[in-house]
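Cyclodeaminase/cyclohydrolase domain-containing protein
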Amino acid sequence: MKLPQNTDEEREIQRTAMAAAIEETIQVPLSVLKILNTSTWDALIQLAAVGNINCKSDLQVGARCLEAGAWGAYYNVKINLSNISDESVRDNYLKEADDLLEQAKQSCSKVLDAVNKREN
């Protein structure tokens, strides 16, 4: 960041601003993972079980797209963790992201399994 660093106070302001920016680079993709897992998969799983079977490929593609979105958000979190110096904070974020990605993978599998069990 291009903030003045001539005094101790200015350096502290710069460190605080950097920490906030780093936090945001993790919180934004982490929130994408949370939203995916709380508001999208249930509807897709229900559609896969009882929706129009002629939409089978649409549901399959939709599930894979959501999974890809989760994968991308996960790796955005992961790459930005290298900017956090506190190992315990880093580990907590990584565990949360790991868990959320695993949820997305399992939900994707549920959709695909439900659709594949149905006949055209």
